[in-house]
Fold this protein.
Amino acid sequence: MSSEGIQNGGMAARSKASVIPPHLQLVNVWKRFGSEPNRTVAVSNVDLSIAPGEFVTLIGPSGCGKSTLFNMIAGLLPPDSDGSILLSGQPQPDGALLGKIAFMPQKDLLFPWRTVLDNATLALEVEGMSRRKARAKAESLFPEFGLMGFERHYPHELSGGMRQRVALMRTFLFERDLILLDEPFGALDALTRAMMQRWLLDIWERHKRTVLFITHDIDEAIFLGDKVMVMTARPGTIKQTETIALPRPRDASVITSPDFMEIKRRLLASVEEESMKTFALSRDAADRKTMS
Amino acid sequence: MTMRGRILTSPPVTVLLVALAWLAVVPLFNIEPRYLPPLGDVYAEAVKLWPDLLAGFWRTFLETFIGFIAGALIGIGFGTAFAYVRLLERAFFPIFVALQSVPVIAFGAIVVIWFGNTILAKVVIALYLAFFPVAVNTLRGLSGVNPGRAALLSSFGASNWQSFLMLALPSAAPVIMTGLKLGISLSLAGAIVGEWFGDTVGLGVLLLQALYFEQVTRVWVLIIACGLLGALLYGALSLIERRYVWWQFD
Amino acid sequence: MAIRLNGLRTALPVGLALAGLLLAWEAAVRLFGVPAFVLPGPSGILVTIAEKSNILSAGLLVTLTEVAGGFAIGTFIGVALAIVLVLVPPLELMAIPLVIAINSVPSVAFVPLVLLWFGLGMASKIALAAFAVAIVVLLNTLQGLKRPESEAINLLRSFGASRFGILFRLRLPAAMPFLVTGLRVGLARSTIVVIVAEMMGGYGGLGQVIYQATAMMDSLTVWAGVVVASMASLGLYGLLVALDRKLVWWR
């Protein structure tokens, strides 16, 4: 497939999205911290939309404001008043997003005093479901998440990959159609990570939720996503959106295919340009410090 | 700790080793009884003192236990209030930390003036001594909740009360346990000293009498009794900790 | 935890709270006509401190000497023992049960014994304070000395460092924060044990002042003694906090 083909695929996806309202839409979202003389702009002018059932990956250099953006979508941080976040076409005032989006932070953040099973049911308990019902519901998911037999274990007894699966199960059990994942596999070794990626796609294809997935790994972004968005260096904004028309279901061989390589080449150039900017910025700051 | 270290520090082995060392050291270095009487003499003295010893042990235990429980409950209450009302914390917490380093036992004299030579006076002293470390540690634990976990819970739509029960309290529990362990040792010391201001029953009373009659052997019996009581109280808390609060604070 | 008193933002609420507490106390005492032997007001206590400044300052001097002497001796013994134990592991295995046994006895229970050994003078108080400090410092320093991971120790050994080289370059710096914690706990314990020992038997010191006043139901002097003792130990605590910042600057 030529690069034109990919562009066309992008057009098709966009026209389809305009028929059904996008699941999540950000319009001119900004986040500025502090007041004028030493104001930092973490996120500037972000526009994005995600169609229902779509798997979107977001990639950018470290410190580009990904996490700030993420916290705004999760409802933990209000966006500045000149922008808005819409969920299924409905604008969301401050605080309204809390409890509407299934959110999985970078660290697994399991509660060490709860068993694997009780960690998985955390969100259900918050919603007021009885412990017995919540447990029954979670137990049925254990085989699928590869955690059979570990229900009564405590988090410290699990490997990193297993802990991450527990955290994912907790997120899935909080049954919201939109799932936000913040570098969920960032701390895993390469082999475990590749396995988890394929497993996540499998789960996603079966449950058909909308996913926004943040990562700093280009291979991961392309392998998982229907769409890859590239963020610029701070202040973060969406620089480029690349539709990934690679056929699904995807397996490990996709990564070595020419199409994949072609997309990767293009994205890499774009991401590296941003990384260089952050590097230069921090060098400038260091220079300024040594001069003063 | 190594396996060997763990065996050596298990309570029965510790008691055995100390007893053996005692038996060996007295004849070996020819230690005078006024410093360290032979273990056999100490045992004989304990047998002679048995009814008083038992009554004193029980009385001092009661004073410590009641005072400690009350002090711990009030301490947890204050610590929680401080953790959730920032102004209270900023105004009173430094005073609390300062009061912790003050020789609070001296206040025992005042308490005895207020309550006389009653069991209540010792309970109040024990309460007062347990209160500060528990309050300070409760605040420390509750305000050290991992912000990531807190954000996660609020993204699930948890109420403040749910966050307190599901997250803040369990994650503060190890720190509170540390405060309780500090508090129980102080409570015991407070009860013993409180008895010196005047009473008729208790390990502290017996200690004072032994001092007046210069009975070194009896003093050793009472030191062992105090150590036993201290170890029992502390050990009970450690057991509770190991069983119910085994996770680490982060 | 270090209390940072610099900055009005922290000092103001504390100052207001303190002033408020004292005012409320004074007002309550005056309003309800509480007799001084039940609860004297802060002004009454201040007046008593001024009136009895002779015996109070004499007592304070004795108590401070005992605490300082015991603290210095105890710190030295505690650190020295910890170093010996960490250099000679078999010794540590033998000593630990003994230290644990001693540590489970509330330190005030040793007061009568030490009074019988060293008499009612200052020596017994210094010995008690030294003992209380040494135990805490030993346990804390030992924990700190054993803190460095074996990888770091192996790294230094691969550079050809000797046992003492490892002690000075790695173990002692790592133990510093623990030592300071030990000193802080030890200071609190030694002030308590000194005052308690003075109460139980002695010729001077704030503990003796407080004890005699209690026996005579002289509530004002009891309060005055307690307040002076508290101020003194707060001052010592402040010194330690300052020392902490000097010694453990990297925290």
